[in-house]
Amino acid sequence: MRKLKVNQLEHLLGQEWDIFPAGGATGEAFIAVNKNEKLFLKRNSSPFLAVLSAEGVVPKLIWTRRLENGDTITAQRFIDGKELTHEEMNEEKVAHLLRKIHRSKPLLSMLKRLGKTPLLPDIMLENIASNLDLELQNISPIQQTLYFLQENLSLIECDDKVVCHCDVNHNNWMITKENKLYLIDWDGAMIADPAIDLGILLNSYIPREQWGPWLSRYGVDLEPGLLLRMKWHVLAQLLISIQWHKRKNRLKEMDILLKNLEAILV
């Protein structure tokens, strides 16, 4: 795939802009500065970005322009902020923003228009089982996890399919100096059970005894059905991550995830 070059952006914006890479694995994001104006530029962002911006979930989309080669460039307002800490994930504004996202009809409608279909647990489990290599399949906690997922498959049905971020890591929550909170990096968004986001967030950041108050701020009760759905989806996501780390030969990270697996199975 051809790389986006700084000179293409200079031609698009003008020589008065200073443009430099924003970092990241793809090399497709840049920061542009002109006097007091600062923009975050990205190539070929999904049309989903416009709805996220309109809903106030991500920094404001300023404009979208097309290059001569057909690529599109989006410009968002560059926010002067910071990532949330582990402790800040327990704050009320996090629960409120996630609730807003999960209840957003415009976000759900746009993902459907983009061809996304609901992520169903039976299909997810089938994909997980078929992608696990033989070495992993022979590890006892993984065998126990697969058994748990299969045995509880019929008990975690959820008619409420919403837009899930699917990577609610604290690094993706950004807060400005004005205390405005955003959730960024939506490349993995899915239509799914909200228990995916809730389970990952609570298991990663919130002490177990505080799950009830956190979910109350989000707008639901901590009840056995939700607990089971969250546990199911967290275990499923852990299996996916374990296989990914093994393929990348990141064995130390894989071992940490295996320990997490065992702790949740208890």
Automatic annotation (TrEMBL):
Domain Aminoglycoside phosphotransferase stretches: 47-226
Domain of life: Bacteria
N-terminal signal peptide: none
Pfam family, one: APH
Protein name (Swiss-Prot/TrEMBL): Thiamine kinase-like enzyme
Annotated source species: Peribacillus huizhouensis
